[in-house]
Amino acid sequence: MKNIRKNIVVILVCSGIVFSCANTKNDDNPSKTDISICENAIEGKLLNMTGLDGCGWMIELEDGNKLEPINLNSFNISMVEGKKVNLNYTEVNDRAGICMAGKIVELTCLLESLDK
């Protein structure tokens, strides 16, 4: 009887280990994929403005306007100066930025551009 209980415990522990090693890759926030995920996306490029007081990474749009995103770290994208991105955003009017180099925005979608 003791051996049966011991075997059951060993089997349960081994099963738990095997099933806990399942693939848990999460593609909810793709960083390099089809632009159709970001409908009506606009193009921009990443700017490293950390040299200015109170500034961090920003996005410069094709028209030269700069965006100061409040949730840039929510997206799985590597920060590289000049990297082209596709994005959607909403302006945030109830916050003031320290950097004061662009509009404060909340990104609703951010993808690496497929264009090089």
Automatic annotation (TrEMBL):
<protein>
    <submittedName>
        <fullName>Uncharacterized protein</fullName>
    </submittedName>
</protein>
<feature type="signal peptide">
    <location>
        <begin position="1"/>
        <end position="22"/>
    </location>
</feature>
<keyword id="KW-0732">Signal</keyword>
